[in-house]
Amino acid sequence: MDAMEDMDGMDILTGSNPTMQPDCHMLGKGVIPGLRYRHLGKSGLKVSNIGLGSLKAFSSEDCEMNEDLVTLAFENGINFFDISEPFTSKRAEVELGRIIKKKGWSRRQFVVCTKVYWDKTEEKALSRKEIIESVKDSLKNLQLEYIDLLIVHKNDPNCPLEEVLRAMSYLINTGQILYWGTAKWSPVEIFETFSMARSHHCIAPLAEYAEYHPFHREKVELYMAELYNKIGTGLITWSPISLGLCSGKQEDQATLFTKLALKSGKYAKGGMDMLNLHDGRGPHEATLRVKQLETIAERLGASLTQLVLAWSLRNNTSQCVIVSASSMEQLCMLFNSLQLLPKLTNTIMDEMDKILTNKPVRPPMVSTLQQRWAATGGMPPQ
Question: Which is it for strands 177-183 and 207-211: parallel, antiparallel or unpaired?
Fold first, then answer.
């Protein structure tokens, strides 16, 4: 990443000077400038560093728009398609399966990720039965022979990890899924699952699916890189910004960012008053920091959404960032964030960290001997 300083203002794919394109005319059949393909975790599976999520993109009732958005992504190099939301997951799977079948794309050319939303079922229980039935339903909806990546959304403390591991190993060994991963699992749960997989000769999870943006950093920056280095756990990230939950209007973007800043608990000195946000009277500190980020974005010739998405993409701990959009223009705007990457030099990143003042830091190691000797002034007892 230090090499980014030498590439300031240069397109990271072609070496040319990029301009932030306002529309989709830059996009055609090929690869978006700046798109990269990375191995997911320590596996041979390569995914594009931007993936298309279903939340806004292909779960709507507008079949034509769904097809246009998926086709736009695929024809510009995106190979990772994610079912991102539980309440529209069936609709999204059916639509994605319909589009893939209609287009006749080679199965080698794309990766499909779906989830086991056990906490949204009537039983609200994770089990071997729930996992296998969920996979059967997804395969039927997607009209595919196998799922590339199956994510277990949240851990169920009432379901033994061994049961999950044996269910996943069965599905992989029978060719129904290729890899499995986790979402909203703690680093301790992930490591424990890996250790149990080794001792029981089962297949360990490949990746964690986690929220990551400038106001939600601790898990990704403190723990996920370490898990990758130690046990090969990959990382797929998302954020309310990347999933297209705000329009392209500057005021809507500022409002969403202020809400995220307040939710983090770092800037709400007087407590959270979410009602004030709707009329632009958000708490002063959070609003001030968002305005400072807007200033940086304007200086780089980008929107606040593009700046934050590029900020997430710059972290190589994450192999793929999930984006979603309800229109071609919004999706192109998100794709154009890739052109910001060479502009995010170490100097800019440091400037953003000074504005955010929330860079996570590990607590210092405390010696147990020092604690025991505290009563004697830090000296060993005589």
Answer: parallel
Task: Please state, in angstroms and rounded to a whole number, the distance separating the CA atoms of residues 243 and 330.
Answer: 11
Residues 6+ apart with CB under 8 A from 142: 93, 94, 96, 97, 100, 112, 114
Q: Where are the beta strands (DSSP E) in the chain?
A: 37-39, 46-48, 50-53, 80-82, 111-116, 147-153, 177-183, 207-211, 234-238, 320-323
- pLDDT value for 33: 87
pLDDT (0 to 100) of residue 43:
96
Which residue bears the tokens 């809400």? 259
- Model pLDDT for residues 182-236, shown as the tens digit of each residue: 999 999 999 999 999 999 999 999 999 999 999 999 999 999 999 999 999 999 9
Return mean pLDDT, the chain: 85
Work out the burial of residue 127: count CB atoms within 10 Å of its CB; fewer than 13 is exposed, 13-18 middle, 19 or more buried. Answer: middle
Largest CA distance in the chain: 81
What is the number of residues in the chain?
382
pLDDT at 380: 57
CA nearest to 289, candidates 343, 358, 211: 358
Which of 257, 280, 279, 282 has its CA nearest to residue 268? 282
C-beta of residue 161 within 8 angstroms of C-beta of residue 190: no
Q: What is the pTM of this model?
A: 0.83
Cα–Cα distance measured from residue 138 to residue 144, given in angstroms and rounded to the nearest whole number: 9
Q: Crossing angle of helices 128-142/89-103, nearest 10°?
A: 40
- Cα(116)–Cα(138) distance, integer angstroms: 9
For 21, 37, 77, the CA distances from 32, given in Å and listed in that order, are: 12, 12, 7
CA distance 208 to 229: 14
Q: What is the tens place of the pLDDT at every residue in 322-345? A: 999 989 999 999 999 999 999 999
Q: Quick check: helix, strand or coil at residue 213?
A: strand
Q: What is the pLDDT of residue 12?
A: 33
